[in-house]
What does this fold into?
Amino acid sequence: MRKGMSHSARSAMFAPLDQIGRAEAVTSRLVDAITLGLLADSEQLPSEAELAAQFGVSTVTVREALVALRQQGLVETRRGRGGGSFVKTPANPSAASWRERLRTVSLSELRDVGDHYLAIAGAAAKLAAERSSPEDIERLELATEDIRTATGAEASRAERQFHLEVAAAAQSPRLTREEVQLQSERGGLLWLPLEPHGTRENAYAEHRAIAAAIAQGDGELARKLTEEHILEAIDRLADVHLDLLAP
Amino acid sequence: MNDTPSAGSEVVEQVSALVEDVFGRLKPVLAGAEGLLAASADATAEDLTRLRPQVFEVLGGLVVGAGFISAPNTLADQEFGFEWWTETGDAEPAQLVISLDPDSENFLDYTRQSWFTVPRDTGRRHINGPYVDYLCTDEYTLTFTVPVQRDGAFAGVVGADIYVREVERLLAPKLRALGGRAALVNAQGRVIVSNNARQATGSLVREVDVPAWWSAGAEPVTTESGAHLRRCGDSPIALVRSER
It folds into this structure.
């Protein structure tokens, strides 16, 4: 059985790209899909023609992207009958390929993703404060505790789960879908397990504060704390990005 | 507002009938799941596929998703079991595939969701919602679940999903006919569907302490402020009515 996230996250992964002809964008999408586990190890990618159609780009662009993926060791090509491109899930997806992703994304793109994420997550936090029931709050508190104990890829998942729960507690299918979409593309970068150890404690404290504001029904505070939380995540990412670019 | 006790009765009966219809449809799946688990202590994920004919029968009309979800370590070959199918509008239902690998970055723990925990903890059937079902439908949903037993222990749930907007379409006409403010709410006081914008779907009714009323037995009552509360049959859904 193939593993995957929700149906909508999978669709978001293969939705048409905004700009035609950018091999980088196709590469990014496929790198994300592979390192997030949306495509399983040894899974065969759709044909070049199918990928081109789905992304809304030319097959030449798709071929360029596949070359890049082969170079990164994320895909292998087999010829002949039953041939095609097959996924090679990296053993340690977090470290290597995320650094590559962070290196190639631009600072302006990072800021833009942050703006989008902030708008969605902030609004969701405010609505969650207004609409949460005790059961919703209990789930949020469980998600918060997970953040305290998790490390590495688990920490990344715990962060994503928390924000997903907030969007669901806001009683908004649209905001929840936006949250899922953002998490499955660039937004996933926000919750990279890049810590030095200190950041783990900070993340926990920040989430506790957000959950508390929601439990108290203080929508403005919940939104403010969420926005600050995301801005800090973006700043951290920006620092790492610049470090990776340094000669 | 039409104040006679019978005025709300049509709505109450319509809701009750809807609820019993859905739970009735789940009975063959429940029997199939319990039979399957009773017959073999080593039931595997593959064995669950034998439930498909019964699951497919549940789909259709209001029901957009249905299936069996096992409790952890019920199956012999994997920790979690998920045999769930959804209506697609095409001829064939589609299987829902989620990440069942706890180590995966995309694993979402369904054992924290109320549609799972309430049948587990109470041994009774439950209707969860309205809620955003991000594991499955990605829509505002009502999920009906019934506990499955094996050797007297909780082994999972069989369930069915219904979109809130479809329930609204069905119930709105009779609610509007009631006049005044009328809302169908769950045990937390969250509005499933109402006849006024003030009590929007998804909002919490705060003028009445609905959770307290449920805990106290959910008997029909008229509050000091003039609100009428009535449970709809044997369901965790209640009709709340008040003046404008």
Notes: The CA atoms of residues 164 and 176 of chain A lie 6 Å apart.
